[in-house]
Amino acid sequence: MLSYTVLALLIFDLGLFLASAFFFDNKEERKESLLISVLFFFSGMPALIYQIVWQRVLFAIYGVNAESVAIIVSAFMLGLGLGSLVGGRFSARFPRYGILIFGIAELGIALFGLASLRIFHWAASSTAGANLPWVIVFSFSLLLVPTTLMGATLPLLVGQLVRRSGRVGVSVSRLYFVNTFGSAVACFLCASFLMRSLGQSGSVSLAVCLNAVVGSIAYLSVRTQQLDAPEEVNVLRSPASGAPPIRLSIAMLLAGLSGFIALGFEIAWFRVFSVASSDRAPAFALLLATYLAGVAAGSYVSERLTQDAQPSTVVRVIGVLILLAGGISVFLPPLVATLMAHKMNYLSSAPAFFVVAGLLGSALPLLCQVAVPPQENAGRGVSLIYGSNIAGSVLGSLGIGFVLMQHLGLRQISLLLAFAAILTGILVLFFSNAQFSWPPAWTAALAVAALVSIGLAPRLYTLFYERLTFGAKPEAHVPFAQIIENRNGVISVTPEGAVYAGGVYDGYFRIDPFHDANLIVRALVLSAYNPAPTRMLMIGLASGSWGQVFVSHPRLESLDIVEINPGYLDLIPRYPVVRSLLKNPKAHIYVDDGRRWLVAHPEARYDAIVVNTTLHWRDHATSLLSREFCQLVRRHLNPGGTYYFNTTESVEAAATALSVFPYGLRVFNFLVVSNSPIAVSKERWLTDLQRYQIDGRPVFDPAEPETKLILANYAGLAQTVYGPPLRMGLENSNSMRARLGSPRLFTDDNMGLEWEPLVAISWR
Hints:
Strand content: 5-15%
Low-confidence stretches: 235-241, 758-764
Radius of gyration: 29 Å
Distance between the termini: 27 Å
Largest sheet: 8 strands, mixed
Number of helices: 27
Number of strands: 14
Mean pLDDT: 88
């Protein structure tokens, strides 16, 4: 398992911290910080578990489109930023009660976590189909309380630790390390087994227990002390005595810029990992574990190496580290593609991402070290810098993920972010003494080298998506005919017309039943099982091939199509075989998340609903395969209506649908389910096929010699429902239930097989 690479990085972090504490901290310092460090480590773990689970629950409510993702992530981070300001005020007002307030905050988080899934599900029923402004309001309202409590914890404990150690940099770096490291460990556990074994509700329950234990220990540790007894407070022990070398406002600006750049990198890197991993759910968690582990290590090592340095030197170090991050970052996406082209797993590149994240992660504690004096209100100063860092991260999430990715490709964004980091580093170097001054020659040479790297990097992006998608296969050497990048993902098309979305096969620009390499017969079979498909819904447009077939059905009057990625609307006009679909008066296309669209239109009823579902193990695939989704679809069917979807040969997906609907029929790897008995009519099907016309031309022209043969083959296919089950045939639900047994059903809570290790799943 290549996830061991990420595990090795986590072990490296732990060893680094323990060795540093043992060799460089005196016994008194270790004793003072041990309890706080342990508590804050375990406080970081549930925070990330909540983030992963709560985001998924909210995505189920508001959709998995780019707008909802950006808003929910930003709402989570804004709450953290607001919490840091609140924590700073409490730290300044109650300097001796930081651990006590921290314990109360942890207990408050546990209390909310205990009821969180119920609260979110209540919100779902109350805000079904809300428009974008309401999504913003509801997301922020739902996440405000817990994220504010989470964000308040760092300033509270920093204020407490500074009073004992007398050093801001050491306090911030230690606490930032242990909390971020705890979050990294939680991400790794989520990717490895937690989400797979416990599901959403079980993972939240574990997080609640961790919060409750941390909060209780913190509260009891204070209660056992004499709170009213005089407390020994260490005064300035840092060589940075006197006025801070840079103003707090400048430190806040730099923290915001570093947060913006860091979040931009994370968003760009996630796209790389997503395509390289074929859009697997654990990919984001493993990337985040790598990223957070790097941030933790960088924040701790940089402070340790500069704790005895002059303030101007520390500022110069900040500039050099940001400069290096920018110069190296531009090579990371091509590195992943190159490794895959040489038959190596994408996670082999994790150490490189770890290093760049560490370089960026060093900025926050170093800025606190040189801008916040170790006084009783140190926690407030740290909260302002920390809040600015989070504000920059929010702007990075919205500005990069929501705006720039809609207009620029990954290569351009990587180059821009690298340039922004290099420029920031250069400015810091030139103003390291609080006024303009020439930096040392070696730093100037480093800046020139970093700028040169931006000029050299673009050529490394040649065949970038081809290598990410195909790895070492021969197809990786053939350029894609089309590539569309937007904030919703990446769509690429081979010269033969095969479509790939996020690195995963997503259909063909092909509707020819006589050369049926993409099994378009699965769309043409509609009349065999549905006698009157006059009003129809199709979730997922993709290449438009299936939409072109359905909209041309002789019995159809109206076809609603919901597609989450508008990039397909730009792609379809380039292919004549499907171009007319966009202008067909029967077709009504909506850009939205399919599940969200159904929730937003509870009155809509259809004779047929079709979902050409993506592979069942992809990230968020369960949102269109779970029992809850099947129940949602069932409410939108007219009497006798059918739901037809791609099981992608998943036994669990088929069994899940059959647990909701009493009747079913398998068509190859597709499944038809209904509330009414399903009867296969060979005569009706063949009659409708002979009436089929696309763009005014008959699909099955009697004058063509192959027509009679293919219609005879279709007649034979209809008869397979009466024989033993064949993989490339029809099978009724009674036979399927007996064959499938009792597999685990897909639910929103267990997320199906999204978090399972990827293995070959054969038809059974």
